[in-house]
Amino acid sequence: MQRILPEQLKALAAALDAPLYVVGGSVRDFLAGHLTDRADWDLASPASEEALARAAEEAGFLVRAVYRNTGTVKLTDNEGVGYEFTRFRSDKYVRGIHTPSEITFTTDIALDARRRDFCANAVYYDVAAGRYVDPLGGIPDIRTKILRTVAPAEKVFGEDGLRLLRLARLAAQTGFSPDEACLAGAKLNRALIRDIAPERIFAELELTLHADEKAGGTDAPYRGLCLLRETGVLAEIMPELAAGDHMTQRADFHNYDVLEHSFRCVRYAPPAIRWAALLHDVGKPACMLEDGNFHDHPARGAVIAADILTRLKAPKKLTEETARLVALHMRDFNLQMKENKVRREIVRDYALLEKLFALRQADFSACKDDLSPAPGVQKWRTVLEKMRQEGVPFTLKSLAVTGDDLRQMGFSGERVGAMLHELLDYCTQDGRRNHKDALLRHAQNLNKETL
Predict the structure, then answer these.
(1) Minimal CA–CA distance to 16: which of 41, 49, 42, 38?
(2) CATH 3.30.300: does it fit domain 240-390?
(3) 81-104 pLDDT, tens per residue?
């Protein structure tokens, strides 16, 4: 591991009067063969936070913050890379609450290891001595790709409900699997996730949905979601989605129940639309329970998806975009929509069009694991290409007339914006109409018709 450690970190270890260890994900990933030259550097030592801060300044680090209550120091090196140091300690928790209720500093590395979550995350590397210290047998777990808790699983998950989500996220990102005791402990304590702040829940889910960007492989998000289903945590945080478990669908269209189909949609979706893929059919359980069918599930699902993401305090843009994609994902599913209407819808939702195509393709592929092009996407892409060849303007900025042009003709107030949209709709059906003189004449004629 010495070859990937930054020289400035080695200088810090030399300047400190106590052993300095790298611990956690960077050590785990290196031993698993996943880490080369980049890492999130978590540091630990029996040294005090004040001693570490002094040594860090001597080694040229920028000390950004010192938290004496938790023994934590945040550092930045000369390359702008961040480090987080935590003094050896032992923590006590109020059941389920993420923040420790009591912290005791120690010089015992085994006690420090016991405050962590999984043995695979409790392997230490002594920077100065160039050796591993493995108090809890984490190295064999890494070699066999096992997630085993540092203490009885009921205690580990009972201490901190966030670990329920970390289990799924880490399993997804690393390709590791929980052992039976770990899995049983998570199931037993699943309700403790309710005590965790929604922002933290969203952050862990976001990482799980993008776990394929780590070492977990292409199926990483799918595996993480399956683990959340298996432990029962999904039903605690998104009961509306979990309600689709074992809810059957038409066999001529689907091989899977509603929830499994949603997971597989995530499997086939690009990163930018993973939330929309996960929630695209979230309206189906409510529709089936209330109406006895799935007919209105896009509209119902858009409302539910927005409610879920708002509850999780997701970014507003993501919430709005996801809800819109959910609402649109079944448009023209039977390929009966006429071209003039397809054209209007393409222009209306042009900003989201590529994401909508990606969602429709993922939805199609998830029905029967069919990777062939989705017929609905093919149809709309054909119309889109035809519109481009005609020179159809897809946005108001692409129109050959502007609001100033209309105001010079006598339009004012809200009528200016309304007329621009009418002209855009006019050009939607034939791009050759997008010429200034022709559009101004058309605007004049439309204005006369309204008088």
Answers:
(1) 49
(2) no
(3) 999 999 999 987 666 565 777 889
